[in-house]
Amino acid sequence: MVARLRTQQGLTQQDLAGRLARVRLLVSQYVIKRIESGEREVTDKEVKLLAKALRVKVDVLLGT
């Protein structure tokens, strides 16, 4: 879901890393790649910050 939302907004993984840094979640493009591929799980806090950086509600990010 992260990859789809990111690409719909015309963002690169590096762009998303920048947005995440602005909401105080410091992750690299490599970590975003692993999150998008399902290789890395995210914490509740990270889900909230990802949603904020992608400018969507948590429910949208979770696909509910």
Please tag this protein with its features.
single chain; 64 residues; mainly alpha; 434 Repressor (Amino-terminal Domain); 5 helices; 0% strand; globular
Task: Please characterize this protein's 3D structure.
- The model has no long low-confidence stretch (mean pLDDT 96).
- This protein has a single domain (2-56), classed as 434 Repressor (Amino-terminal Domain) (Orthogonal Bundle), CATH 1.10.260.
- It contains 5 helices and no strands.
- It is globular, with a radius of gyration of 10 Å.
- It starts with a helix and ends with a helix.
- It is mainly α and 64 residues long.
- Helix 2 (13-22) crosses helix 3 (29-37) and helix 2 (13-22) packs across helix 4 (44-54).
What Rg, in angstroms, do the CA atoms define?
A: 10 Å
Number-wise, the strands total: 0
Helical residue percent? 55-70%
Question: What is the CATH C-level name?
Answer: Mainly Alpha
Tally of alpha and pi helices: 5
Oligomer: single chain
Order of helices and strands: HHHHH
Shape: globular
CATH-defined architecture: Orthogonal Bundle
Mind describing the biggest β-sheet? none
How many structural units, i.e. domains?
Answer: 1
Query: Please, what is the average pLDDT?
Result: 96
Low-confidence stretches: none
